[in-house]
């Protein structure tokens, strides 16, 4: 599908189309980009997920006619895709889940996309899945924030809630995840 | 764990997030009295949160200025103000720097002031010494001329004759000289008297050459008035000293001295003695000393007169003195009455002690190398007890000195004036300096913490919240009120263009509207950097556009309620002859105003048109603006004749969009592709995917967006009436609004 089309769909408010049609394209594109990085596999080489999503964005979307809501949604899809990609990659590498000195980890600063930190991605992925059962929105916030590197306002716009809501969700979710990873819940 | 548990815990957490630790725990415990499971769970979450805060600090602050909770922002502002109010922020290096600079300046100022002050004083005192020098000069001249006179006299034949006669007499009678020949002595006295009178002297006397005995004198005559009682008397210490000089050949000036110092012993005490000064010279015959001649002058009339030129000034005193502290010339008795003391009547004493000046003189004269002059600039009491400053000069050859004294107050007048002025200006500088520094410090501290964004008038910009074609919108804060506002800024590049006119118009129009559903304008202005801005109420809410973006179905009641509020706002505008012309979901805000959920606000009267302005005026101001999605079609081909029905069209379009998610333009192009050529037939029921929309509402919308203007509701009132009848059956209560709001702002 050409850029024009994709952009139009993103701009429209019919969310089914926005997600259903666009997500696969995003995933494929990101997969392509990240494969290159996996091949390099330089230790200590970490990348902000937004950089990757930016690249995918430039590949797929017509920047001049994209509305800001469309852009935010694109990044949300990107977050989902990155998560999937990292997890899949970690699994293929048979990475073992690490033990939990999660208290020392500052989840704010943890960079999602680092191929050698695959174990973190795995653990978080599982945590998010479990959180989804308790509080779906909080799980989404974590996904968007952690794997997508999205800012609070962007997440709020994407989910259609107030910033305060996102702030509280993120704070609580963070604690819950920590506790989950250290087996306290 | 039930699913509910996490939800409830999150809810509790949202209330305590910003409280201090103890209060938070207290609150949690209070709220979970019945539910221990919930309590444990919530506390676990909370304590983990606290732990993280301690480890990593308050992370939300990093996100400033993008996003922070308004409460946190307020706290930061308060904390910074408190810091600025602290008197000595010792940790601040800059403060020390400033303090040391100030101290340095003060010291510098003091030094400078002292230098000037001393110069002032030095200038004044230079005068004194100069004056004394002048007096010395006068004195010397007078002495010189009088010496010449006495020398002349000593060569006069009459005088020589008298001297020789006396000498003969003395040789004949020896010690009994003075009782020997009264008649002869009286006669000689008369002759001497005549000479003395002729020369206008107070008196004359002749003293023996070989021993200091007065042979004859015209002064201090006895009861008979014939012979002086001094005749045959020996000279006393003071006179004797001078006598010795004269017999060596010198002509001397003898300053006034007490009688007891002149004559060794007088049998009869005298009531009064008029002070006199003498000039003595040897009488020579054939270069042989035969006697000593003295001429005496009234001290007051001659000697004192020398210094009188200074005495007319009330506050000054000039006089001669000797080492014993006796004043040798006439001086002030009572300055206010202008009376004088005669010479030799005053001793330089105060409170039975020598005056400070006299002490100084004594001190100096006892040095190995005396200066023979000096000053006292600090005040000291003179013989009258007045505070004076003084200068003195000592003539060692004459064994007398001159004193120049001046009233301390008068002397220091100019200096005091300088002192006061200087001190006053220093104090002022310090006060201002402190004020400036303190306010500067406050500003600096505030600026550091809050944001690097600019200040407009009384509003401090906090963060950007939106962007438009011709400007940006920021969240701001009134400096003093600390309440959030929205500040709309015009892009600087557009300053000179018609965009500025439009901007100004927008403000004024919006400010003129009062309806609660119209955004309130608080302020308008521009700072000196030519940045135009206006300030509006800050809305806690979401635009209708965003609300619908995530395609949640909006309930009929809510949708109708929203449209109704917008219509009310519009009604006021139309009544005032104004058209909005840019009604669209992005310009409709759904807010929570102090707990009143679903408060609707209509924004952005940027394209507003005054119904009554002429075409030429309007062309300049308005370009074709507005979003095509909601713009009435007649605007495309007839942009200048606008009326209220354009706004009605927009309302209808918004209504359609709300419930169908579709723009009319989309529908048109869509249907056209399908081969429909009549626009009216496009608007069928089937555009709505949902089936709960009441028919009359649909028809209202269709009518409003009719391309045929006359088919539309004629004015907003009729639109309102139509809406109201639907609203009766689909009410939207405050409770409904609250519940719906909670979905958006779960923890508000």
Write up this protein.
Chain B: ATP binds at residue 488. Chain B: Residues 459-733 form the Protein kinase domain. Chain B: GO terms for molecular function: ATP binding; protein serine/threonine kinase activity. The complex is a heterodimer of chains A (185) and B (748). Chain A has helices at 3-11, 15-40, 49-60, 68-92, 118-134, 136-147, 152-159, 163-181. With 185 residues, chain A is mainly α. In chain A, helix 4 crosses helix 6. The longest helix of chain A has 26 residues, at 15-40. The mean pLDDT of chain A is 80. Chain B is α+β, with helices and mostly antiparallel strands. Chain B folds into five domains: 3-63; 157-302, PAS domain (Beta-Lactamase, 2-Layer Sandwich), CATH 3.30.450.20; 320-410; 451-538, Phosphorylase Kinase, domain 1; 541-744, Transferase(Phosphotransferase), domain 1. Helix content of chain B is 47%, strand content 18%. Chain B is built from 24 helices and 24 strands. In chain B, strand 9 (349-350) and strand 10 (353-354) form a beta hairpin. The radius of gyration of chain B is 57 Å and the shape is rod-shaped.
Q: Briefly, what is this?
A:
The complex is a heterodimer of chains A (185) and B (748). Chain A is mostly helical. Chain A has helices spanning 3-11, 15-40, 49-60, 68-92, 118-134, 136-147, 152-159, 163-181.
């Amino acid at each position: 599908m050409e850029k024009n089309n994709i952009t139009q769909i993103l701009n429209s408010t019919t969310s089914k189309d926005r997600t259903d049609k666009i997500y696969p394209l995003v995933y494929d594109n990101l997969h392509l980009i990240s494969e290159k990085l996996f091949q390099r596999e330089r230790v200590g080489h970490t990348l902000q997920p937004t950089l990757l999503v930016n690249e995918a964005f430039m590949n797929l979307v017509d920047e001049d006619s994209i509305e800001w809501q469309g852009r935010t949604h694109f990044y949300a899809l990107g977050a989902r895709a990155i998560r999937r990609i990292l997890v899949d990659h970690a699994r293929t590498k048979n990475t073992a889940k690490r033990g939990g000195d999660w208290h020392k980890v500052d989840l704010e600063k943890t960079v999602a996309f680092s191929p050698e930190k695959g174990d973190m991605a795995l653990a978080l992925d599982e945590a998010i899945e479990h959180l989804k059962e308790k509080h779906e929105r909080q799980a989404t916030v974590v996904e968007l924030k952690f794997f997508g590197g999205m800012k609070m306002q962007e997440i709020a716009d994407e989910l259609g809630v107030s910033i305060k809501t996102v702030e509280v969700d993120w704070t609580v979710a963070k604690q819950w995840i920590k506790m989950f990873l250290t087996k306290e819940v | 764990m039930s699913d509910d548990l996490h939800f409830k815990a999150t809810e509790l957490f949202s209330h305590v997030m910003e409280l201090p630790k103890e209060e938070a725990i207290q609150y949690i415990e209070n709220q979970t009295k019945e539910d221990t499971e919930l309590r444990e769970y919530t506390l676990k979450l909370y304590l983990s949160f606290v732990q993280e805060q301690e480890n990593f600090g308050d992370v939300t602050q990093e996100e400033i200025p993008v996003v922070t909770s308004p409460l946190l922002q307020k706290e930061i502002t308060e904390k910074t103000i408190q810091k600025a109010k602290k008197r000595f922020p010792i940790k601040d290096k800059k403060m020390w720097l400033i303090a040391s600079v100030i101290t340095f300046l003060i010291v510098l100022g003091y030094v400078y002031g002292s230098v000037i002050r001393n110069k002032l004083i030095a200038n004044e005192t230079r005068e004194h010494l100069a004056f004394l020098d002048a007096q010395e000069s006068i004195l010397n001249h007078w002495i010189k001329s009088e010496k010449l006179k006495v020398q002349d006299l000593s060569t006069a034949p009459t005088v020589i004759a008298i001297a020789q006669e006396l000498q003969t007499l003395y040789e004949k009678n020896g010690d009994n000289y003075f009782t020997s020949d009264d008649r002869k002595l009286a006669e000689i006295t008369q002759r001497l008297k005549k000479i003395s009178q002729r020369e206008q002297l107070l008196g004359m006397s002749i003293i023996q050459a070989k021993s200091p005995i007065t042979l004859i004198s015209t002064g201090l005559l006895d009861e008979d008035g014939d012979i002086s009682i001094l005749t045959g008397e020996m000279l006393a210490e003071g006179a004797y000293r001078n006598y010795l000089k004269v017999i060596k050949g010198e002509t001397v000036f003898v300053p006034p001295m007490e009688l007891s110092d002149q004559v060794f012993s007088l049998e009869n005490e005298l009531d009064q003695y008029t002070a006199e000064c003498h000039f003595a010279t040897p009488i020579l015959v054939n270069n042989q000393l035969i006697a000593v001649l003295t001429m005496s002058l009234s001290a007051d009339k001659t000697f004192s007169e020398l210094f009188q030129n200074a005495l007319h000034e009330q506050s000054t005193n000039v006089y001669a003195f000797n080492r014993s502290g006796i004043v040798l010339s006439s001086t002030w008795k009572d300055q206010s009455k202008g009376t004088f003391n005669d010479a030799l009547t005053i001793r330089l004493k105060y409170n039975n002690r020598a005056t400070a000046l006299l002490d100084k003189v004594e001190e100096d004269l006892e040095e190995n190398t005396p200066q023979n002059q000096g000053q006292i600039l600090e005040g000291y009491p003179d013989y009258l007890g007045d505070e004076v400053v003084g200068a003195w000069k000592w003539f060692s050859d004459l064994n007398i000195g001159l004193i120049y004294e001046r009233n301390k107050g008068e002397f220091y007048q100019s200096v005091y004036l300088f002192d006061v002025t200087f001190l006053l200006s220093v104090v002022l500088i310090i006060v201002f300096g402190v004020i400036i520094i303190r306010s500067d410090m406050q500003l600096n501290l505030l600026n550091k913490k809050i944001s690097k964004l600019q200040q407009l008038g009384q509003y401090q910009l906090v963060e950007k919240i939106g962007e438009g074609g011709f400007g940006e919108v920021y969240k701001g804060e009134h400096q003093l009120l600390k309440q959030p506002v929205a500040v709309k800024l015009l892009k600087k590049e557009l300053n000179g263009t018609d965009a500025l006119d439009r901007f100004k118009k927008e403000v004024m129009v919006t400010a003129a509207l009062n309806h609660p559903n119209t955004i309130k304008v608080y302020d308008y202005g521009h700072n000196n950097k030519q940045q135009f801005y206006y300030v509006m109420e800050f809305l806690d809410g979401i635009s209708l556009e965003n609300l619908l973006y995530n395609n949640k179905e909006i309930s009929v009641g809510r949708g109708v309620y929203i449209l109704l509020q917008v219509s009310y706002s519009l009604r006021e505008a139309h009544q005032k002859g104004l058209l909005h012309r840019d009604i669209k979901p992005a310009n409709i805000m759904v807010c929570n105003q102090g707990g009143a959920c679903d408060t609707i606000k209509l924004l952005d009267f940027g394209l507003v048109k005054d119904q009554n302005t002429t075409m030429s005026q309007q062309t300049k101001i308005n370009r074709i603006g507005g979003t095509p999605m909601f713009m009435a079609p007649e605007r495309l081909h007839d942009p200048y004749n606008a009326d209220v029905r354009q706004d009605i069209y927009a309302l209808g379009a918004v209504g359609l969009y709300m419930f169908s998610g579709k723009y009319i333009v989309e529908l048109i192009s869509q249907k056209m592709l399908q081969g429909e050529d009549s626009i009216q037939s496009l608007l069928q029921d089937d555009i709505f995917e949902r089936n709960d929309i009441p028919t009359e509402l649909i028809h209202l919308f269709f009518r409003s967006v009719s391309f045929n203007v006359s088919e539309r509701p004629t004015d907003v009132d009729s639109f309102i009436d139509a809406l109201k009848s639907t609203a009766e059956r689909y009410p939207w209560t405050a409770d409904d609004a609250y519940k719906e709001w909670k979905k958006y702002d779960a923890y508000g």
